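quick one, 176 residues, struct below
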Amino acid sequence: MTDLVKDSLFVEDILTPLTGEEAAYYLKEGWKLIFNDYPNKNQLGCLFAQFQLESANGTRIHANNYGNIKKTAGHKWTMFPCHEYDKNGIKTKYYPPHIQTGFNAYDDLLIGAKEYIEFLKNRKRYLAAWAGLMNGNLVEFNNGLAAGGYYTAPKQKYYDRLLLEFNNFQKNYENF
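---
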């Protein structure tokens, strides 16, 4: 491809699709690896909703990356086509090897889930999102994600989709 993919940390992009039940399971277990306890249903619902949105309902999870976390220095990574919105809400599609198409890659689904949760927990720019997540409050979670620049989509559009997926989780995943 290019010199970028000659990087020893670069890995081939492999889709790792998940059902909703599988995604909820790994997110719950990833949480337990961090906190030695399970999330409550609203906390898991927030994570599940964002996962569903970021991964096209689990069909487009690339290299076990639950939240489409951009490439981080010193981390395994991959490239795949993506889109971003500018400040005017105009959507632009990017293709490898454009810098926007670099994303972290994880060795397996459980590590990917754990790393996604830790990413939200450990980044100062997502403190408000983390507070919303810990409160199980989807509005606070979304506001914090938007304020921290997690996504480039129009805020209301992103929230509407989060709410749809959160409600889906609350209704259809009673065993979690």
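The two ends are 43 Å apart (CA to CA).
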